[in-house]
Amino acid sequence: MSKKVLLSGIKPTGRPHIGNYFGAMKQFVDLSNDYDSYIFIADYHALNFIQNKTEMKENIINVLLDYLAIGLDPKKVTLYKQSDISEHTELAWIFDTITTMPYLMRAHAYKDAEAKNKEIVVGTFNYPMLMATDILLYSPDVVPVGADQKQHVEISRDTAEKFNRIFGDTFKLPELMIIKEVAVVPGTDGRKMSKSYNNTVPLFAEYEEIKKAVMSIVTDSEEGIPKNVYAIHNLLRPASELLPIYKSKTGKYKELKELLIEDLEKFIAPMRERRKEFAKDIPKALAILKAGGEKAKKVASKKMDEVREKIGVNVYEK
Ligand code: TYM
Fold first, then answer.
1. Which residues on neighbouring strands pair with residue 225, listed in sequence order?
2. Choice from 148, 154, 176, 199 to test ligand 1 binding pocket (greatest atom count within 8 A of CB)
3. Which CATH architecture has domain 4-183+282-311?
4. CA-proximal residue: ligand 1, atom 6 (nearest)
5. What DSSP element (H or E) covers 233?
6. What gap in Å lies between CA 27 and CA 46, rounded to an integer?
7. Which tens digits make up the pLDDT trace of 257-311?
């Protein structure tokens, strides 16, 4: 029996943090034996935010190294970047033609920008359409993501349904995979960990950076337990181990933070070192990305042929 398909990706917009890791990236690794996995770099999504050639190139290579360093094995996982597969942007246009403006105006990213009175580029407005193509071209069974991507995956399901209704059964409806305990990993201030809130613990942080991030954790406490420190610590150790320690050190925030620093260092250091090894041979890493792109392209172009046939633009004899 062939394996089920898993697909997910991240935007190359800066350094990943432990929220990205526990919310999504860890699942990519944990499930790579059980699923036929497609993991990609969403560089055309990042273009909405990064409009600088050098930075874009660096960010793409960085995400590639991040993927390899967390343990994604290119023998098991197809690693590629979105811009290598032109079918994504082609299909996005087709989805644009069946999607209404009011429907996309309900998307969180658009509403947030509007609430802040920010000018929104068309690329950001259409982001959910491009994301729907990322998913639907590969017919995945599951899409592991953090809670903030829930709406986007739902939009891709809606879009698949709509296309199937108009043109006939073409796209498989993907299932969201969100792990409840890590759906929203909190940052150093207790809000969702996010680059834009400046409250992150970088995934490949050096020891001094880990220390700085932990020392900046806001120590709001409940019954003597600093809840933001505990919430991050709980990503690394189960409550059964952690609670007795926190209870025996009620109010001793400094000691608890020091313990968290040590635990984070133990967890991060091996990945950080592995990343340095991969960084010594960038051409080799890029060859992996290119080969992954060629493999993904075959799947995407087959689906696109089917789409062109269904919508009626395929007029030539085969
Ligand atoms: P991105 O790059 O913002 O985030 C990558 C993944 O990390 C998850 N995440 C979190 N999970 C839990 N707690 C947090 N604090 C936290 N912060 C981030 C995100 O939910 C995501 O799973 N649009 C996507 C990239 C994308 C994609 C796709 C994903 C493009 N096309 C197709 C899946 C399928 C994004 O911007 O993720």
1. 222
2. 148
3. 3-Layer(aba) Sandwich (3.40)
4. 20
5. helix 227-233
6. 22
7. 999 999 999 999 999 999 999 999 999 999 999 999 999 999 999 999 999 999 9
